[in-house]
Amino acid sequence: MKISIVVNATPRATGLAADVPLEDAVALATKVGYDGVELAVGDPRDLEVEVVREMLSNCRMAVPAIGTGAAYRQGLSLAHADVSRRAGAIERLKDHVDIGAELGAAVIVGLIRGRTADGLPLREALARVSEGLYEVASYAARKGVRLLVEPINRYETDLVNRVSDGLEAAREAGENVGLLVDTFHMNIEDPSIAGAIRDAAPRIWHVHVADSNRRAPGAGHIDFCEVIEALKDIGYRGYVSGEMMMEPDAPAAYVALYSHLAPMIVR
Ligand code: LER
Ligand code: MN
Fold it and tell me: Is it true that domain 2-266 has CATH number 3.20.20.150?
């Protein structure tokens, strides 16, 4: 198992990463000891992929995954009542897949799937999400890229909340679609975090870590010994990736996560 952290590859793509230029976040992650950085990307066309790839290879930083959630704030949603917004979400995800292919990274389908507040009733919204996922997954398969469906808690979306919902959506979408499980969301939606991890075992391809209060692991009441034990039990060899509020500041949050989890992972 390896440890990564979410960074903003384009400015303010996510609030759950340091609000600093990419090279500063990468320098900090390198100094603390992280193995990789997960790139939160607003519009992939704003990213100079070659420059990023070279910078990361110079400090031997892997890119396990690429985040796409900023697109939802820009009005794109796989579940939107307006067909042009759905098509826009699919096109945007394909652009992410293109950079995923260049960086060897999986592409996350989180908030970009949308919610029923985007204008469709639940069954239809879920059907549109399945359709969109299937189309993007087929495109990604041709490029050798994996997609990650992320179950997200009910206060952010009403589509795909529990790990079991995510598993169903991933299985329907294709062989190259797996799960990103996030401890913050599982703490709200799943009866047991360790149980959900064991149930979804072979399809868990990426993990977000944040504590119950969305701060660094160790700052809340999630039992990360139990989480890491469950991941070890299922033979998980991917990344646990910090996606959390940078409190009190980024350097302290980077160190807090790493010093809480690294000893559990090597044990
Ligand atoms: C995205 O990975 C996520 O976990 C969401 O809660 C962000 O809003
Ligand atoms: Mn997450």
Answer: yes
